[in-house]
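Here is the promised in-class demo. Please do not try to memorize the tokens; focus on the logic of going from shape to residues.
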């Protein structure tokens, strides 16, 4: 140890040195190593004395030295390496390669030693160096720079000043020293006579991010990844907003990994939901920063981040909205090169914030994610085929959380059964034994958001849950005239989605949760009755013109309300107003028949019918000014209407006859001639086994309607009679009957859109071979049926136009149209005309040959109905065809 016994105090620079590979060198040199070690010690001690270093410890080949001035310590290191390199060693391979490390910090000696963490940091800096290299900490580099600038040559004498004039400090970057949680920026001391090229320091490089290593692959979201990355590149604060479980955290982590190169200062993620010690402390821990006594952690963080190009991810901001907003504001205000991406169920509401709402997974991505997670849940082999998984994925609304839960359920249920249970997604997907985490179940996830709502927003959410689909602002205000603020809160917190229109949509999962909350409050009957009243209000608005006239039934106009009316009908059938439910059932009858939803309709009507008599009478009798006997008549009419609708939905002939017989008996007892004619006409719409008897019954019903002054009620019987006449080729009588029936059809709004009179007149013209009349009537029927949404009936019109093409000498077009009509019609093929289509298709096959016919038919089936309809409407009018008789007469 040197003779200097007074140890530096205050800002001290500590030096550690040792010989790299000393053990190998000792084994190689044997006894000669003692001489080498002694010479090495002599050289270094001479330098320490010259630059006023205090030797504290010598052990083997290492030194521990303290300096009062950082510039003197750096100069000593440079001089030591130069003298070691120029020394006359006994042999070229015996040159000791000394590594040196420096660190500067505040320390006070106790006796003849230091008890300070700064000493350990200096030792770790030295351990990171390579033989022949000098490393120093950022603290030493700053101290040297400051001292040299202050005195224009340093504070350690002329020798040190001369040496420092040739020194440069090379920034190697941030590294993690063993035993220390924070990062240390290391500098290499370079000067003439010192080696410059070394491997990277022998310590772990400081991490550039704290993004987690994911347990499963990231699936899909390519468009969202690109969109979000583009937003981040142009905006300092981007908030990713979406419902719980939509994948916000996973997406931002994936984007952050792509952006690592754009942020040399790193990407750092903290989660407000788990930052128990506070957000600034959590961010400091991620950055590797140490707390400073008496200083707020946020000040330490801001100081360290002030000039760093870095990205901070603030996850789950809704767990602590005020604190996350305050942290984001502080960082953005004080750190000009720092960007922030926040995630939550609501925006932060900061100036300059760009809010990006995360959409649900695209159908293809939802299927891919379900397929991947299902395979993982089932040992790598999904038990269901792709079609079943695709149908299940379509029911999960693009929610990654729901998909994860569904994949786990597939260990228990096949995909097809699980999909059928998703009318109640909470019951189908949640596990009663799930943990308390917000992502453990859909219920926990939604409860997390629900607890943050104000009372008015929570009340509106429960009210809107009664609606089956998206609603307009007018409908929201039907629930609450002053609902705009509450609606804004629901949209901000991702419980209601704003879709084009604008309309306001609630996911099935949110609706299921809100309905449970509604039931628990005891308000469900009141809210459901109000929804039923709204449904009747919209029914009147759709079916009645502003002048009070009943409008033509159009399935196109009904379609936006079908789901709502069916929901209201379920409530009415269960416990609500049965008469109101029956009104909805009658309105839905054409929709059920067109779309094949007959099973649900039959079940609802069965429930309604069982409750009808008492409920019908009670409702009417309660209306002011209504006689008691009128209530009985209305109840009978409602009962008959229920039977007629129910009979129209059943495919069982015996059940149909039973219902119609019951309806006829009740109609006879009512004394209402129109009601009786309606029932008798309905019984004839499905011809029996004896066409002659059915024809006689049709004539009798038509005559009865004429006698009792209710001819309109017999219109279905007129159509049945015209069809029977067409089948036995009494074409003149059928034509006259249909011509006289036009005024009947015009008086019946429920039948006007189908244009059945034009349709049958077209069929009569086809039988006569009058292509001009057939074309005119069939195109009118087709256009009307399309406009009013009667797709099945429109397919029949396309098939009839196919016959017109066949008769007009265009077999190729006829066959393509037949293929398209059959594909669109599906199970709604009409019994009466099926044989007619088949006969013409058989003729076309015989004329064209099997191969050509089958190819054209398949082409039509694959075109899609819209293109088939366009093709049918583009068929040239017979008057314009070469050789057409009427065209020839005009030419003459």
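The designed amino acids, position by position:
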């Amino acid at each position: 140890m040197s003779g200097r016994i007074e140890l530096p105090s205050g800002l001290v620079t500590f030096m550690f040195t040792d010989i790299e590979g000393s053990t190998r060198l000792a084994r190689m040199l044997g006894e000669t190593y003692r001489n080498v070690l002694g010479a090495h010690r002599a050289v270094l001690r001479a330098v320490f004395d010259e630059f006023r270093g205090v030797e504290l410890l010598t052990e083997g080949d290492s030194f521990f030295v303290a300096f009062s001035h950082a510039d003197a310590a750096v100069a000593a290191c440079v001089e030591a390496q130069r003298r070691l390199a120029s020394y006359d060693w006994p042999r070229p391979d015996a040159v000791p390669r000394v590594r040196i490390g420096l660190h500067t910090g505040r320390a006070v000696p106790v006796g003849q030693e230091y008890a300070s963490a700064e000493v350990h940091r200096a030792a770790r800096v030295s351990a990171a160096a390579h033989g022949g290299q000098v490393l120093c900490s950022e603290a030493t580099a700053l101290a040297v720079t400051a001292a040299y600038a202050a005195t224009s040559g340093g504070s350690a004498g002329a020798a040190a000043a001369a040496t420092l004039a040739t020194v440069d400090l090379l920034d190697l970057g941030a590294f993690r020293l063993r035993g220390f949680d924070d990062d240390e920026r290391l500098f290499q001391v370079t000067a003439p006579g010192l080696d410059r090229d070394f491997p990277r320091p022998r310590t772990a490089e400081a991490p550039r991010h704290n993004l987690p290593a994911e347990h499963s692959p990231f699936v899909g979201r390519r468009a969202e990844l690109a969109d979000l990355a583009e937003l981040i590149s142009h905006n300092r604060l981007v908030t990713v907003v979406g419902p719980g479980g939509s994948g916000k955290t996973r997406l931002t982590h994936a984007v952050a990994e792509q952006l690592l190169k754009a942020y040399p200062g790193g990407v750092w993620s903290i989660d407000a939901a788990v930052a128990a010690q506070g957000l600034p402390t959590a961010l400091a821990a991620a950055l590797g920063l140490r707390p400073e006594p008496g200083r707020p952690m946020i000040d330490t963080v801001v100081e360290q981040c002030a000039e760093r190009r870095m990205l901070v991810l603030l996850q789950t901001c809704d767990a602590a909205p005020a604190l996350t907003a305050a942290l984001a504001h502080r960082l953005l205000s004080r750190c000009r090169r720092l960007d922030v991406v926040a995630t939550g169920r609501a925006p932060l509401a900061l100036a300059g914030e760009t809010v990006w709402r995360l959409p649900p997974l695209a159908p293809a991505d939802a299927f891919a994610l379900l397929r991947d997670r299902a395979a993982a849940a089932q040992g790598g082999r999904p038990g269901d085929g792709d079609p079943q998984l695709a149908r299940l994925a379509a029911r999960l609304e693009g929610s990654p959380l729901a998909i994860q839960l569904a994949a786990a359920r597939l260990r228990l249920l096949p995909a097809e059964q699980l999909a059928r249970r998703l009318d109640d997604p909470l019951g189908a997907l949640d596990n009663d034994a799930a943990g308390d985490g917000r992502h453990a179940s859909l219920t926990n996830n939604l409860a997390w958001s629900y607890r943050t709502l104000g009372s008015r927003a929570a009340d509106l959410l429960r009210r809107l849950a009664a609606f089956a689909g998206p609603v307009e602002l007018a409908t929201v205000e039907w629930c609450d005239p002053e609902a705009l603020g509450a609606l804004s809160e629901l949209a901000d917190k991702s419980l209601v989605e704003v879709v084009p229109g604008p309309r306001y949509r609630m996911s099935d999962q949110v609706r299921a949760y809100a309905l449970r909350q509604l039931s628990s409050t005891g308000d469900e009957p009141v809210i459901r009755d109000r929804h039923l009243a709204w449904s009747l209000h919209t029914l009147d608005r759709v079916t009645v013109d502003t002048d009070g006239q009943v409008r033509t039934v159009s399935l196109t106009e009904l379609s936006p309300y079908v789901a709502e009316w069916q929901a209201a009908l379920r409530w009415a059938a269960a416990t609500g107003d049965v008469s109101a439910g029956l009104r909805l059932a009658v309105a839905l009858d054409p929709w059920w028949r067109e779309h094949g939803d007959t099973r649900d309709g039959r079940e609802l009507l069965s429930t309604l019918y069982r409750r009808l008599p008492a409920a019908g009478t009670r409702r009417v009798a309660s209306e002011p000014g209504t006689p008691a006997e009128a209530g009985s008549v209305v109840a009978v009419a409602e009962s008959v209407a229920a039977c007629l609708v129910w009979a129209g939905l059943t495919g069982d002939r015996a059940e149909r006859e039973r219902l119609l017989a019951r309806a006829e008996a009740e109609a006879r007892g009512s004394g209402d001639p129109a009601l009786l004619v309606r029932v008798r006409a309905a019984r004839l719409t499905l011809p029996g086994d004896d066409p002659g008897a059915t024809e006689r019954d049709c004539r009798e019903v038509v005559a009865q309607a004429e006698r009792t002054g209710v001819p309109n009620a017999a219109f279905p019987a007129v159509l049945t009679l015209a069809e029977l006449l067409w089948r036995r080729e009494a074409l003149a009588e059928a034509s006259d009957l249909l011509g006289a029936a036009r005024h009947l059809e015009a008086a019946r709004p429920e039948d006007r859109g189908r244009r059945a009179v034009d349709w049958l007149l077209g069929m009569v013209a086809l039988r006569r071979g009058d292509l001009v009349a057939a074309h005119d009537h069939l195109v009118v029927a087709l256009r009307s049926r399309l406009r009013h949404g009667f797709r099945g009936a429109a397919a029949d019109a396309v098939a009839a136009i196919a016959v017109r093409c066949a008769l007009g000498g265009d077999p190729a077009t006829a066959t393509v149209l037949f293929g398209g009509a059959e594909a669109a019609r599906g199970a709604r093929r009409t019994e009466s005309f099926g044989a007619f289509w088949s006969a013409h298709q058989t003729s076309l096959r015989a004329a064209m040959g099997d191969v050509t016919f089958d190819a054209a038919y398949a082409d039509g089936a694959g075109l899609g109905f819209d293109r088939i309809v366009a093709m049918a409407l583009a068929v040239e009018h017979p008057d314009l065809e070469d050789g057409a008789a009427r065209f020839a007469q005009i030419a003459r």
